[in-house]
Design goal:
By secondary structure, the protein is α+β, with helices and mostly antiparallel strands. Among the domains are: 7-140 and 147-177, Winged helix-like DNA-binding domain superfamily/Winged helix DNA-binding domain (Arc Repressor Mutant, subunit A), CATH 1.10.10.10; 191-324, TolB, N-terminal domain (Rossmann fold). The chain has 27 helices and 14 strands. Strand 13 (272-281) and strand 14 (286-296) form a beta hairpin. The chain is globular, with a radius of gyration of 31 Å.
Length: 679
């Protein structure tokens, strides 16, 4: 494509010499760098332009990350009314670059006329950066027709007049525009109530660089959350789904239901680290701040301190001395211990047997280097708990792991009383290991007193309250958790179950649909949806749901038993009996809790009219010591009390007089401690 000629594509007129882009005769205001990108792509019509090539062209003397290019691409697409999912002009070639694909034709006009700009002029600041207000999502572009011109002389004067108009408009209004935007920025920044720190992109391929990227993300979330309690910062798990993926920061902010997003990149080599970051107003689409921080690799903490302080300043937060101390607080002073901790977080997030083993190894080394590293102790406790929860250890190793988890959680609290995750782990241990809900409740209340906005604590507390039969309070805390993190699939699934036991099938279905929209593979949400089908007598759909779950995990007896129950309630008792025989033939799965399986099996016996077998089974759950696992049996009794009082599917045996006897023998736990407000 010959450069310098005026071109037309779609409704656009492009004049590279005058640096003008018109849409149906109206000026489209483009920042200089956005216009440069458009011109570069047009000149290489239908050619693949790599990301590296575009970055070198746009920033020839500056080292920038891929995120900067993504923002310029986004601005150009918005100005053209283009969409990445259905491109008319700019095609994304995943992991490679971009290609201009619209049909081009040389314009027959030597000169043009146009109306006045629809947007305020764009003026670079002192650094050369441009703050460009993005068009509204509903803006389809003006529909003005081109004026009909007659005669070369009129065309020439119109062309000259248009250029003069643009220059004068820029010079005359730039100061006022900048002033007004500055005032609007201050109002916008101080008004942010919800913020998301998106995973910083690693520009290196090494695991260490990826761990540093996630580490900076996590550190910013923790620091910003600790300073301003009036602002909700989305938790780390809420943004983790964007890690390693290309994303539109503004769309991500919209999906996360926040008003501002923070993005960035991390580039590391053997002895150097470079971090870039940007702050975007999701509502207006404007970039409010950007910064670059460079240091030696062993000065990462200094980079984190400077980045945190500048972000807090750009958000117009008024900080006192205590706020500044929290903002720059370091969990450890040892860079090697921190590196090991970040590697552990990286593997902890994968949730596989091998990755959790690696996480334990890294964390053990980290706390060996720095025994006062509270967050490393807390993460070690949680990792050991996850190994038990996911049944990655045998029954004997589980006891050892739970004991080590308790010691690690206590070590975390001893070093830093504000690490709430350690209290949550100890609370879980009080239930799982000690069957002591009173002690667990006190630990949850302590964590909530330290961090009232922590969605993780509220979610876990809501789950605990559900298990001890405090259904209304459980719903309250789970809803509060969703206010802090509306994109949590697991919290939506929990609320779906709570609404189910409250017999509110409509709201249960709404929460479960939301959970599965966020994570289609959420096994618990799918299983609960199957129970909801059973409650609504949609037996065919329930059979399909549980059969699919059983096929995906043949070792899970609960879904196999639910599939049998669905068949029995639907009238296919023969198939139900076949499934039951198959489950009983395989024997008990040692690591799976007894009470849930016993309850489902009792429901199935009731549906098959085998009432004696149902009550014999439920009566086996006694407070006596069985194989030395007395705590496990106590937990099963506590769980059985919940199911007996609230499980709607036990209606298959509730008409039997023996059911009332079971209810009396298994009362719900009583709590004497006062609960705090869920707000």
């Amino acid at each position: 494509m010959q450069s310098g000629k005026s071109l037309e594509f779609g409704p656009f007129f492009f004049n590279p010499q005058e640096r003008i882009l018109l849409r149906q005769g109206q000026v489209v205001s483009l920042a200089p760098m956005v216009f440069d990108l458009l011109q570069y792509l047009i000149e290489r019509h239908h050619q693949l332009c790599s990301k590296e090539e575009l970055i070198r062209h746009l920033w020839p003397d500056t080292i920038v990350g891929e995120n900067s290019l993504l923002q310029i691409i986004y601005l150009l697409r918005r100005s053209l009314g283009d969409e990445s999912g259905a491109p008319r002009y700019i095609l994304t070639v995943p992991r490679h670059g971009y290609r201009f694909v619209a049909e081009l034709k040389e314009s027959q006009l030597d000169a043009i006329t146009h109306s006045s700009p629809a947007q305020p002029p764009v003026v670079p600041d002192a650094t050369g950066e441009v703050d460009l207000p993005l068009p509204s999502a509903n803006d389809t572009g003006p529909g003005l027709e081109e004026e009909k011109v007659e005669g070369t002389s009129r065309q020439q004067w119109t062309r000259v007049g248009a250029v003069i108009f643009i220059v004068v408009a820029v010079v005359a209004t730039s100061s006022l525009w900048r002033l007004l935007q500055s005032q609007n920025n201050n109002k916008s920044e101080s008004a942010f109530k919800t913020i998301a720190v998106l995973p910083f992109r690693s520009l290196s391929r090494e695991d260490s660089s990826q761990s540093f990227s996630l580490g900076i993300t996590d550190a910013l979330i923790i620091r910003l959350s600790s300073v301003n309690k009036q602002v909700t910062v989305r938790p780390f798990n809420a943004v983790l789904k964007y890690e390693g993926k290309e994303y539109d920061p503004l769309q991500a902010g919209s999906d996360l239901r926040v008003e501002a997003v923070i993005t960035g990149t991390v580039q590391t080599d053997s002895d150097h680290i470079r971090v870039t970051s940007q702050l975007f107003d999701v509502r207006s689409g404007r970039s409010l701040w950007s910064g670059t921080f460079e240091a030696r690799a062993n000065e990462l903490f200094i980079v984190q301190d400077n980045l945190s302080e500048q972000l807090a300043s750009s958000l117009a937060w008024k900080l006192n001395s205590q706020d500044r101390e929290r903002l720059t607080r370091r969990d450890t002073a040892d860079i090697e211990a921190y590196r090991l901790y970040r590697m552990a977080v990286y593997h902890w997030n994968k949730r596989t047997k091998e990755s959790l083993e690696k996480a334990v190894s890294y964390l053990t080394k980290a706390v060996g280097i720095d025994p006062k590293f509270a967050r490393a102790h807390a993460l070690l406790a949680d990792t050991l708990m996850l190994q038990v929860y996911f049944e990655f250890t045998d029954i004997d190793q589980q006891r050892t792991s739970l004991g080590e988890a308790g010691k690690a959680a206590e070590a975390a609290i001893s070093s830093d009383e504000t690490v709430v995750e350690a209290y949550v782990t100890l609370a879980a241990l009080k239930v799982i290991r000690d069957a002591d809900p009173e002690a667990a409740n006190k630990l949850f209340l302590r964590a909530l007193a330290i961090d009232p906005n922590n969605s993780f604590v509220k979610m876990r507390y809501g789950f605990f309250l559900r298990n001890i039969g405090r259904i209304d309070e459980a719903a309250l805390y789970l809803r509060r958790a969703l206010e802090n993190d509306p994109t949590s699939s697991i919290t939506n699934a929990m609320l779906g179950y709570v609404m189910l036991v409250k017999n509110d099938c409509q709201r249960s279905g709404e929460y479960l649909s939301r959970a599965l929209e966020l994570d289609p593979n959420n096994k618990w949400a799918r299983s609960t949806r199957g129970v909801l089908f059973l409650m609504n007598k949609r037996y065919g759909e329930a059979v399909t749901e549980f059969q699919n779950l059983a096929a995906e995990d043949p070792g899970d007896k609960s879904v196999a038993l639910y599939a049998a129950l669905a068949n029995a309630l639907g009238g296919n008792t023969r198939r139900a009996s076949e499934i039951l025989v198959g489950v009983e033939r395989t024997g008990e799965k040692s690591a799976q809790p007894l009470a849930p399986l016993a309850v489902i099996k009792a429901e199935l016996y009731g549906a098959l009219k085998q009432y004696d077998r149902a009550f014999i089974l439920l009566n086996k759950i006694q407070p006596d010591v069985i194989d030395g696992h007395d705590a496990t049996i106590k937990v099963d009794r506590m769980m059985l009390a919940f199911y007996l009082h609230f499980d709607p599917l036990l209606n298959t045996i509730q008409s039997d007089r023996r059911y009332e006897s079971l209810i009396r023998r298994h009362p719900l736990p009583e709590l004497t401690t006062t609960r705090v407000s869920a707000g």
